[in-house]
Amino acid sequence: MPASPMQFPPKLPFPKWLHDFTGLNTWPDLEPPYIPLDFIDFNKILNIPIHQQGQCYEFPDLRSPKSCSFDCFNCVEVDDVYTCSKLSQTFDDGPSPHTLKLLNEFDKTNTKTTLFTLGVNIIRFPEVYQESYRRGHVMGSHTWSHKFLPGLTNEKIIAQIEWSIWAMNATSGHLPKWFRPPYGGIDNRIRSILRQFGMQAVLWDFDTFDWKMLDTSSQNTRKEADILVDLKKFQKLKFNKGLILEHDAIQKTADVGIEIYNKILKSDQLTVPLCVGGIDYIKKFPQS
Ligand SMILES: [Zn+2]
User: What is the pLDDT of residues 46-86, one digit of tens each?
Assistant: First the structure.
């Protein structure tokens, strides 16, 4: 859930290399334009029905294991990361004004975490992104503007991924390896695009549902204590293995991240690449 778009205008300059490549002069809004890339082969993109969130039973093809939809059926592929050899935290939807307060806790024990960032937030808070990266935390992509990818055309999916990568590259000079789909929206069509970028999907096996804390009016509201109790149960049941989904875009959810860190996991956790023995980034360019 990105913060309201116009509350913070873009702060990051639009780089010359990106102007030369795209012909544009400013960062896009929530609907980024598709820019063709020579390494993307549309023949390699699998043909799986476009569906909206929860629209899981209207297309028989979607039920086939060939589609492997995570949002509909929790299906994972061999190159998806969805758990970890040590129970570990991950954070989505930043960077935000609350990210560094959270990272200050991790930094006390020199513990690294994984942040799946939104392009639209990177260009609003580039200094938070740069500082998170400088401190050694692993930066992954969470798309440009948090769309449910299985509902988009191939071109729009590519646009969501390419613009998020360009925002990361423009801010800190690297190309991400790890990608978390918004709402867990991924199937083999999305994966067949993602793989052409050399990236891998990161899902989770413990959802904190921390965002439900914000919904104080309904019966679905969740309290910080509920999250801690549920997580401790999971930890015991899974012998301290797993990957936790959290959010650092909002004060309340970032605060739960601090509580989970201090009361449950501390430094006994890993970044996503360390969970699976992978690389942190596809490429890092020298920074001037
Ligand atoms: Zn998200």
Answer: 999 999 999 999 999 999 999 999 999 999 999 999 999 99
pLDDT of residue 70: 97
Domain harbouring 245, CATH code: 3.20.20.370
Confidence of residue 172 (pLDDT cuts 50, 70, 90): very high
- Determine the distance separating the centroid of ligand 1 and the alpha carbon of 143, expressed in angstroms: 9
Q: Give the Å distance between the CA of 2 and the centre of ligand 1.
A: 7
Q: Is residue 125 part of a domain?
A: yes
Ligand 1 centre to CA of 24 (Å) is 27
Average pLDDT over the chain, rounded to an integer: 95
- Residues 87/133, Cβ–Cβ less than 8 Å: no
Total structural domains within the chain:
1
Q: Does a structural domain hold residue 33?
A: no
Strand order in the sheet with 243-247: 200-201, 178-179, 138-141, 114-117, 88-92, 243-247, 206-207
**Does residue 92 carry a catalytic annotation?**
yes
Least-confidence region, from 2-6, 41-45, 193-197, 274-278: 2-6
> Tell me, what DSSP letter sits at residue 199?
-
Domain extent for 230: 79-284
Q: Tell me, yes or no, whether 183 lies in a domain.
A: yes
DSSP code for 249: S
Residues with CB under 5 A from ligand 1 (ion): 92-93, 182
- Please report which confidence band the pLDDT of residue 6 belongs to, taking 50, 70 and 90 as the band edges: low
Catalytic residue, from 51, 146, 174, 247: name it: 247
What torsion do the CA atoms of 96, 102, 104, 108 make, to the nearest 10 degrees? -160
What was the pLDDT predicted at 218? Answer: 75
Asked if residue 60 is part of any domain, the answer here is no
